UniProtKB/TrEMBL annotation:
It comes from the Bacteria. This is Glycosyltransferase family 4 protein. Keywords: Glycosyltransferase, Transferase. InterPro entries: Glyco_trans_4-like_N. SUPFAM superfamilies: UDP-Glycosyltransferase/glycogen phosphorylase.
Length: 375
């Protein structure tokens, strides 16, 4: 019998962020597999009982708040539960004096290539941010505490190896689509036909932060070249950043939502001509997967991770090239080009399941367990 603990303390009580969604999806995937794995005993560790509302019906226990000083004793807390292997969706879990196999996760390396910190942070924090990302040593120390390292994409795995961030085995345990959110081809066709008949301005959707590496400026310039389109910017934004983008292209039709709940966002996606994303680097591409799940075409920057996620279901533009983005959006006016993209996107989303990702995770768990038992 292998005792596995999933560190679910990063599950958000409110709306998911990327890490919350990742560990929740994997937990549900593992729960789906359990009937075929009688050799597995799985528990989740939470730091707030309300997190259980988003998790499958598994045995659970309380652990320290992961952003408190008590994180230092997490290893001792886990030792008392005698797990064979612990999986954490972060690389920062406390593991002092651990007596169990440990799988840590590094999602991306964005801030090594794009070290500019968020502008709203205090000056001292921004300085520390830059110093941390000028060296790989802190990350190496964190990851080498593990028996194995997981990451969410082959692109991130290659970057981890290239930068020699760990001497531990690196495994891809990918992000996935939420199965109940993936439309059928028939539903996608009805939505696509409804969009093609609309008389109002065509909606283009951007979901993501407004950090410099996201290059939202390219999307704003694109929108200025598309007078019959609105660019809907979904996420929360500061007044100053909003003004910067508005001043960049005064004639662009920009709609700032400053945050939407999941249902409103999905409804907006299903009305959209396309989801657009000009990022210069990502660890995954969750907005792309959400769009493909909703039957919405994707226009994005031609970076490796976006090609890994969307494959032949997206139109690509060179990084920073607003004209190319505008040209790609215009292509979607041709039904013979647009509809096949939708079909391929739905197929990719349908094939990307949390159960298959969970099988990858359990393969890593089994490997760690075997290696720790080996003489």
């Amino acid at each position: 019998m292998t005792r596995l603990v999933i560190d679910a303390r990063y599950v958000k009580v409110g709306r998911h962020d990327g890490i919350s969604r990742y560990v929740t999806g994997l937990s549900h995937g593992v729960a789906q597999i359990l009937p075929t794995r009688p050799d597995l005993d799985v528990q989740v560790m939470v730091s707030d009982p309300r997190q259980l509302d988003k998790l499958p019906d598994l045995a659970w226990f309380m652990g320290p708040d992961p952003v408190s000083a008590k994180e230092l004793v997490t290893g001792q807390v886990l030792n008392r539960h005698r797990p064979d292997v612990v999986f954490s969706p972060m690389q920062t879990m406390g593991a002092i004096r651990r007596r169990f196999g440990l799988i840590l996760t590094l999602h991306d390396l964005i801030y090594y290539d794009h070290p500019t910190p968020p502008g709203h942070l205090p000056a001292a924090v921004r300085a520390g941010w830059r110093l941390f990302h000028e060296s790989v040593l802190p990350q190496r120390v964190a990851l080498n505490r593990a028996d194995a390292v997981a990451t969410v994409s082959h692109t991130s795995a290659e970057l981890i190896r290239r930068r020699r961030l760990t001497k531990r085995p690196v495994h891809v345990v990918p992000n996935a689509a939420d199965a109940h959110q993936v439309v059928s081809v028939e539903q996608a066709h009805r939505l696509w036909e409804a969009r093609s008949r609309q008389d109002a301005a065509h909606k283009l959707i951007y979901m993501g932060s407004f950090m410099p590496y996201k290059d939202v400026e390219t999307l704003v310039r694109m929108a200025a070249a598309l007078p019959h389109h609105e660019l809907h910017l979904v996420s929360g934004i500061s007044d100053s950043r909003r003004q910067e983008l508005t001043d960049l292209a005064p004639h662009a039709r920009l709609v700032f939502h400053n945050g939407l709940d999941d249902d409103a966002y999905r409804n907006l996606l299903q009305q959209a001509t396309a989801l657009v994303h000009a990022s210069r680097g990502e660890g995954y591409g969750l907005p792309l997967m959400e769009a493909m799940s909703a039957g919405t075409p994707v226009v994005c920057s031609a970076i490796p991770i976006f090609r890994e996620v969307a494959g032949n279901a997206a139109l690509y533009a060179p990084v920073g090239d607003s004209r190319a983005f505008a040209d790609a959006v215009r292509v979607l006016g041709d039904p013979e080009r647009a509809w096949p993209l939708v079909q391929r996107g739905v197929a990719i989303a349908a094939a990307s399941t949390w159960e298959s990702s969970a099988r990858e995770l359990l393969s890593v768990v089994d490997d760690v367990r075997r290696r720790r038992l080996a003489p």
